[in-house]
């Protein structure tokens, strides 16, 4: 029982590593991204609790897991939209809502046994980032902070290593080691998201001198 509680507390605390990234979104007044980020934290907390204590917290563990996966995927896609650096806020708004909707639909299509549709969605948005950063004129795209980008990539590589490590410990049924690896993965992923959100300035913030076109949707 103590081992179960300890693992849950560790995962719950390390989920808080996403809070610095949420603070960046709050400062930049990215309300939709902030909503998705907070929802990701909440659903992750309830999923971890339901799994650790083998109980139902309004929803079953599997349903919390599903929602957590959908929101996590959407959160990553929203980051991709941010990295695309569109100055026209109409593009940003459309891409955000398409990302959230497709994350939900594609996860529902894939279920638990496949990830083909989700992979395709991620590849499309990553391609959008690469295309924008590689083929767009400098005056049509927001600047990119390379140092923050390097920091984000290093943290992301570290998180990936911890993810593979957690898989190894899970197969070995070493639950405590698995919990530690998962916790470290969450912390490194949180740092990666934090630096990634800082790589590109939020051009629709009133605190920024670079004001983009006003959106016709708000």
TrEMBL record:
One of its GO terms (cellular component) is plasma membrane. Pfam families: DUF3522. Keywords: Cell membrane, Membrane, Transmembrane, Transmembrane helix. The chain crosses the membrane at residues 32-50, 62-83, 152-169, 175-197. The keyword Transmembrane helix applies. Its main location: membrane. It is found in: Cell membrane. It is a multi-pass membrane protein. InterPro entries: NGX6/PGAP6/MYMK (IPR021910). Belongs to the TMEM8 family. PANTHER family: HAEMOLYSIN-III RELATED-RELATED, TRANSMEMBRANE PROTEIN 147. This is Post-GPI attachment to proteins factor 3. It comes from Peronospora belbahrii.
